[in-house]
Amino acid sequence: MGTKTALITGANSGLGLATAKALAQRSFDLILLCRTEQKGRAAQAEVQKANPAVTVNFFTADLADLDSVRRAAGLINTQSPKLDVLINNAGYTPARLEFVNDIEKSFYASHIGHFVLTHLLLDLLKRAGADANGPARVISLSSGAYLGGRTSRFFRRIDDLSLTFAYCDDKLANLLFARELARRTAGQGVVSYSVHPGAVRTGWGTDTPGIIGSVLSLARPFMRTPEKGAQTSVFLASAPLKSIGERNNGGYFSDSVPKNTYNPDITDEKAAWLWEKTLPFV
């Protein structure tokens, strides 16, 4: 049994699986959140091989289905005494534009689903943050694509929205959420970060149509491995807080160091607006 517990969404493949295996090797117990039981069981077995001494559990949830998120959170709250690290890793990348309640589906899953999950697990995180191990950590996977995001498109049905801009909006929302979570939980035993993992060779974008899909296919051999892409998340989950820097709470990290951000929509006001706009979904 490990000394700390980390929950990772989308842990059955790519970055999520690589992150889970790396943390298992660092003696973390793992909770894997996957969309299906089949994928969860396969990931559980693979992560367990990385370190047979730790505990690896899994729960199923579809982040675009808030009822399933609530059910999973309820089970986790019931069965887990505390949660030291939450890594909001999962992303949804549709091959065509889809909507859930008139909200673009990848935004719904990547931002709203993770917002609800984090909110419902906050008591577990705060409980862990109150012990001698130091603050609990919430790590949200963003991307350099946040540069193309615009808050003016959030929560709106835009039938001709490109898949590329949909992805950019997701990543901007992930960054703003991490920033506002840090502000809202300051002094409560929780810290929050967003992460750019780099261009990673995963299954993301394999079914993207048109020129974007063609470019991704050509670039894939030159991308980072999932293991390389997971390094910043692993660093933020496991490094001593003094190595991360206490003043970097709410910050955006790449290659394990804080980075400046350059989107004009990244402001305290926009982050607070996004939080309040998302809160009714909980």
Report on this model:
This protein is of the alpha/beta class and 282 residues long. It has helices spanning 14-25, 37-50, 66-79, 105-129, 163-184, 210-219, 226-229, 231-238, 241-244, 268-278, and strands at residues 4-9, 28-34, 56-60, 85-88, 99-100, 103-104, 136-141, 190-196, 252-254, 257-259. It has one domain: NAD(P)-binding Rossmann-like Domain (Rossmann fold, 3-Layer(aba) Sandwich), CATH 3.40.50.720. Strands 3-2-1-4-7-8-9-10 form an 8-stranded mixed β-sheet, sandwiched between helices. Strands 5-6 form a two-stranded antiparallel ribbon. The two termini are 32 Å apart.
Largest sheet: 8 strands, mixed
Radius of gyration: 17 Å
Name the beta content range: 15-25%
For the record, what is the CATH homologous superfamily label?
Answer: NAD(P)-binding Rossmann-like Domain
Short description:
By secondary structure, the protein is an alpha/beta fold.
Ordered list of secondary-structure elements with their pairings:
Blueprint: E1 4-9, H1 14-25, E2 28-34, H2 37-50, E3 56-60, H3 66-79, E4 85-88, E5 99-100, E6 103-104, H4 105-129, E7 136-141, H5 163-184, E8 190-196, H6 210-219, H7 226-229, H8 231-238, H9 241-244, E9 252-254, E10 257-259, H10 268-278
Parallel strand pairs: 1-2, 1-4, 2-3, 4-7, 7-8, 8-9
Antiparallel strand pairs: 5-6, 9-10
Helix pairs in contact: 1-2, 3-4, 4-5, 5-10
